[in-house]
Each structure stands twice: as C-alpha cells, then as structure tokens.
Amino acid sequence: MKNLRPYQRKAVVEVVRSFLAGDDAVLLQSPVGSGKTFMAMNVLKQMRETYPDIKIAAIAHTRELVQQLREAAEDIGIGRHVYVQSVAMARQNSFAVQPNILVVDECHHIEAESYKKIIADLCEQPLVLGLTATPVRMDGKKLLKKDGGTFDKVVIAATIKELASLGNVLIPRIYTSKERLPNLSRIKRRDGDYDPGELCGVLNTPRLCGDVVEQYRKKAYGRQALVFAINREHAKSLKERFERSGFSAECVFGNEKEYRIKHVNDFRKGRIQILINLHICTEGWDYPELECVILACPTQSYVKYIQACGRCMRNISGKNTPVILDHGGCRHDHGHPAEERNFGEPEKEGYEREGPGGKECPGCGALQAMRALECKVCGYVFTAPGCQEELDEELVLIDEDKNRATEMLRFLQAAAKTLCGVDLIHN
Questions:
Q1: d(Cα 253, Cα 196) in Å, to the nearest integer?
Q2: pLDDT in single tens digits along all 427 residues of the chain
Q3: Which helix (H) or strand (E) holds 214?
Q4: How crowded is the C-beta side of 44, counted as CA atoms within 13 Å?
Q5: Of 187, 219, 319, 372, which has the fewest CB atoms closer than 10 Å, so is most exposed?
Q6: Helix, strand, or coil here: 62?
Q7: Rounded to the nearest 5°, which phi and psi values hold at 341?
Q8: How far apart are CA 202 and CA 368, in angstroms?
Q9: How far apart are CA 71 and CA 286, in angstroms?
Q10: Is 268 left (phi over 0), alpha (psi -120 to 50) or beta?
C-alpha cells in the first residue's frame, strides 16, 4: 500500500479486515479532500491479492464521479479489473460481470429505490463498499443495517480538522448574518427541503440580489466565486445583478449539457468570474483553485450544505484561505463545515448543537460551549469565558488573523483581576 497517508492506510486495513471478518457492507466515511476514491481502490487491490478471481463493479450517479472512479482504478493498476458504470446505465442494463464486490460512490443515496433495485437484480448479493463524506439523508432513512439500512459498519478515515493539520484542506472563513434572516418559517417544504417557488418569491428581490453582489465585492473581491441559487429565475436575477456591477457571470443548469460544459470550462480557465448553479456543482465537481462559495439558497439539507462548502476547501499550493458568504442562514442551521459529527453512532447521526447556551467563535463561526477558552475548530482564543464578539447586520465574521497572543494576555489580565484582585499592567 504505497503512497498512502497514515490515516488512509489505517482506514484501508480496517475496511479489509471488516470484509474478511464477515461484514457484508462497509461504509467508508471521510471528508472532501481525503482521497476516498484512492482509499477504495486500495481496498479493492488488497481484496484482489487475497482473492485473485474476485469480480469488481462500481457505480456513481454523475459523469464526473464515474470518470474519477475509472481514473483511480487505472492509476493504481487495477483498471481492467474494475467495471465502472453510471447508476442510470446500471438501472437499464445488467452489469457485464456478476460482481463479488460493488463500490457505491456517494452512498448516502443507496437507500433510494433505484439503488436498491440495482443490487436486488444481481444474481448474487455482493459485498458493498460505500463511499461518502455525508452519511445522512433528508428523508430520515438510516444507513446502518441495525436501523434498517444497508451497512454493517462505518469506518471513519479522518476528520476535517485532521486533514487541515496535514494540509489537505483549508478551513474556510464564513461570513454570515448575526441572526437567521429572513424568517423562512412559513415557507412550505417539498421533498424535505424548502419549496423552491415559495423560497424564490421571498428571496428573489432587487435588494437581496443586490446584497449578494455587494457582500461579494466587500468580502471576496477578485476571487472566482461559485454561487448556489434557488431556481432558474433566481439564478438569472443574480447573473444580471453581477453583470450590471461589472463582473462576468454565467448560469449552469442540469439539462443544458452543452452550455454547462462550456461555462464550467470557461470558469476553470478564468474567463468567467462568477458561476451560478442550482446545486449541480457539488458531488464529483472538482476545482481546487476555487476560493469563494456564495450560499444564496437556504437549505435544510445538511448534505447539500456540506457538499457546497466543500467545493472551496481542497488545498493546493499558494491558495488563500477560502471564503464562504452565507446569505441563506445555512451556518445557523447546520453549524460550521469543519465541526466534527458523530457519524459513527447512528443514534446521533448528523450534527449535534451545543444548545441555546453556546457561543459563536468570531474566527470561524463554529458553535462552542460557553466556557470554552479556545475554538476546537480554528484555535481562536476567546478574550474571556462566555465572551462573544458582536456581529454587524451585514455578513461579518471576525477572521482568524487576530493576534492570539494578545487575546490570551487580555484573558489572563481579566482572570487575575477577577480571582486575585491584581491588575496586570501590559506595557
């Protein structure tokens, strides 16, 4: 297992041991930028060394993910042994081989009827290796077998904080409003999320669209930005406002393949500054150079939120700290994307908040315990226990560039005066 990082090697070994110990389905969970596909291919290579005649298939639901699976298999030298197919093709045609192992990319989709049919139609039930950064579902269906799902076990390869310490990802600076604005409590729900038509009626106004452009100008001027809009009408309104302000902008929609490919390529080449999409530039969409994401579309989906944020978190040489402009209150609903989740415990699946007594980190926006002295996400040192910096009504978060030594000194001064009645004078 050459060229594997320690956390990758550990995850590969644990997955292989799980299969050899009798588990039929294992879910490999790891954040964006961790190399899930690379780890999966190493699992398959190890299984082939143990069982040389084993047949392997892999499915994914987008062209980009299918291509990534094929390239990863080729890179590790097992390309001719891994049959890769899109979910759509797998539904229409049976596999060319009867797989003994089936890899399912973005496997939080596996409880959908289309995926279940693909597996049920196989002559023999294969071992299943699932890959995802977000093992949760909006419909409430669980992924672990003990809760009625598919998988026997979850193997967690790494956390975002661990990846950041290795330089694989960058923890983004998130700008959001102090409170969740506007009030969306009366918006109807459709498929577990806000109804796009009603949501557009509330948010697609000249003032709010103009605010998206203005905050971009203030917080991320000069950076290419990927914008997540509500629907076509909203996307076109945002495009018009950006262009009126002198920024090159284009929209990409799922059913316009030719234009989508052209605009995405132009964006990658720097010909377009603002690319507006309807949550199609998420799973499998890779552009490590991206330094800004604009969330102009509120969502109740943790998966959509994390996938959107993840587009700008991959690290490359010379990249600046990415910026996320949250106009949808998503950070209020789902927390900071770098916060750790209890994915390995099904009864605690998803994001657990501190509760009403928590406080925000002014450095990254993560919710912390009131008594926390240091942010567990970005390391920001609070001025005193329970102290919380105030935010303006516009999108503002104090960044990580504060002098932490000075902040710690202030805390020590306050603590000395409170506990000992001593004034520490700093010259």
A1: 15
A2: 568 999 999 999 999 999 999 999 999 999 988 999 999 999 999 999 999 999 999 999 888 899 999 999 999 999 999 999 999 888 887 777 889 999 999 999 999 898 998 988 887 889 999 999 989 887 778 899 998 999 999 999 999 989 999 999 999 999 988 776 677 888 999 888 999 999 999 999 999 999 999 999 999 999 999 999 999 999 999 999 999 999 999 999 988 888 888 999 999 999 999 999 998 888 878 899 999 999 999 999 988 999 999 999 999 999 999 999 999 889 888 889 888 776 654 433 344 443 333 466 666 655 555 556 666 666 677 654 332 333 334 665 534 444 344 444 455 555 555 555 555 444 4
A3: helix 206-219
A4: 34
A5: 319
A6: coil
A7: -115, 155
A8: 31
A9: 14
A10: alpha
Query: Which of 79-86's residues contact partners 24+ apart within 8 Å by CB, and which partners?
Result: 81/44, 81/48, 81/56, 82/41, 82/44, 82/56, 82/57, 82/58, 83/55, 83/56, 83/57, 83/58, 84/57, 84/58, 84/59, 84/60, 85/57, 85/58, 85/59, 86/59, 86/60, 86/61, 86/62
Residue type, position 127, single letter: L
CATH topology of domain 173-336: Rossmann fold (3.40.50)
Domain 6-160 falls under CATH 3.30.1380.10: no
Residues of the chain with CATH 3.40.50.300: 6-160, 173-336
Structure tokens that stand for 64 in this block: 């980009």
Length of the chain: 427
Tokens, residue 350: 């998803």
Q: Measure the CA–CA gap between 66 and 87, rounded to whole angstroms.
A: 9
Q: Which CA distances in Å does 16 have to 81, 135, 143, 377?
A: 18, 20, 20, 31
